[in-house]
Amino acid sequence: MTKPTWKNPVVKWIDHRLPIFTFIDHSAIQHPTPRNLNYFWNFGSLLGFILVVMIASGIILSMNYTANASLAFDSVERIMRDVNYGWLIRYVHMNGASMFFIVVYLHIFRGLYYGSYKQPREFLWIIGILIFLTMMATAFLGYVLPWGQMSFWGATVITNLFSVIPFFGDTIVTWLWSGFSVDNPTLNKFFSLHYLLPFIIFGLVFIHLWALHTHGSNNPTGIDVKGDKDEIPFHPYYTVKDAFGLGFFLVIFLGFVFFAPNFFGEPDNYIEANPLVTPPHIVPEWYFLPYYAILRAVPDNFIDVWGWLPVIIPAKTAGVICMFASILLLAALPWLDTSKVRSANYRPTYFWLYWIFLINTIILGFVGAKPAEGAWLLIGRLSTLYYFLHLLVLIPLVGRFEKTKPLPDSISSSVISVSTKDEEPANA
Fold it and tell me: 230, 266, 268, 285: which is the annotated catalytic residue?
């Protein structure tokens, strides 16, 4: 990359003392990028845009929100009815959370398909999973703040899960509640943490980008860049592509905001919290449903399959272990997947396993929204079993024994060969 020359004297003066403009130029304009990236690589920039929107809208909402158990629900109604454009800001924030998770799930499954977690991008992938976990914590805390019926009971159920931790579980739950039940101190604590965590996410995103720029982006072929012929500058080629993707995303996002703002909401959460009335069916937000299904899938008094361990693991404890393991195993994928080939385009067996895993995850999401009884319970257990079978057994075995397709010599080799064939008749 060449060092830019600045004609504007103010920019030149600032950059000489603090090279911020040079940094932007190298990171976002001249940054060498694989020439074959498709629209699935738009998700990173979309997530950055949504994060900024969520932080900005959240700060404005916090100015009008009252973190008090007696006043929280009414303060949200005041935002909707009395604050200028308060309804718009809240709907943007509400639906922005769902859009955030939709895009991040697409981002993760793109990485799974193209093997973006493989060497040398292991740390990049782990930081991404850490961002995902922090997002889940932030979303859960934000879900509690309106103090609706589902918010209150969701907070009660989820925080109780920490009681399974040996020796310190009850102490942790008491600390989370700031007392002996979910009440006003709990709401104050959750509000403070919900305000703080997005800035931690912002810091993690910066580290994520740092790791990305260290070894560059993966690409659909999954092979490393081999010279300048495989690369193009990020601007204008991918800035235009990202702008188009952003426009398409905004059409969908604003469509929900203006025409179906409560589509992702739970009806019971539009009722003020009542500690004396338990909802018939407690469910989290839709983006937690696959993990909620895994949590409930473990049968009572779960014992190891072979029966040689005398210890009986309670269903609650085993369910919590499985729920967290389902996410942490994603972070371990760089070591679970033993194949040297990254992209599923060149892995015929992994290609079909990938789509089965994706469908299985969607099924877990549907099961999580249903009561844990009858056929839904059986489907949830079978889907949970396959989830762990896929990650712990199938992926390592397929990576070791799969016969892959031959890889191209370089990113640009196929393009060059096609263009050469097209030119031959004209030259003749």
Answer: 285
Confidence of residue 176 (pLDDT cuts 50, 70, 90): very high
18-64 per-position pLDDT tens digit? 988 888 888 888 889 999 999 999 999 999 999 999 999 999 999 99
213 noted as active-site residue: yes
Cα→Cα distances 24→191, 253, 393, Å: 34, 28, 44
What are residue 302's DSSP bridge partners?
Answer: 313
Report the C-alpha gap between 232 and 280 in whole angstroms: 57
Is 241 a known active-site residue? yes
Residue 318 has a pLDDT of 86
Which one has a higher pLDDT value, 426 or 409? 409
Q: Is a pLDDT exceeding 50 seen at residue 306? A: no
Q: Is position 242 annotated as part of the catalytic site?
A: yes
Q: Is residue 428 scored above 50 in pLDDT?
A: no
Q: Which residue among 15, 25, 230, 242 is the active-site one? A: 242
Q: Is residue 390 flagged as an active site residue?
A: no
Which among 57, 98, 217, 412 is annotated as catalytic? Answer: 217
**Catalytic choice (189, 229, 235, 241):** 241
pLDDT tens digit sequence for 205-218: 999 999 999 999 99
